[in-house]
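=== RUN LOG ===
request id: a7f3
mode: sequence -> structure
chains: 1
length: 98
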Amino acid sequence: MECKDVKCPIHGALKTRGYEFECLVVSNKAHKTVIVKREHTVFLHKYERSLRKTSRIPAYNPDCIGAKNGDKVMIAETRRLSKTKSFVVTKIVKGEGK
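=== RESULT ===
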């Protein structure tokens, strides 16, 4: 299968820059979009404790990659693709999709 997607970071002309995260896909209901969950810790200096936080990031999902729910993926920052999407899925690290 040939990928003719212009917004694909591997086969197309989309360049990545900046942040790169390893995240878990929690939703793939939208067309060519996945919602990924990123967990990170923040140190609160006042209380000398660490706080665990999560963030949900919408990312572009090219057809050649096709990430599904439960997959662990790498996402990379790119130019603004739509109102909410500024990240693109670059590869599947561990596929557990249903």
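=== NOTES ===
The mean pLDDT is 92.
The CA atoms of residues 16 and 78 lie 5 Å apart.
=== END ===
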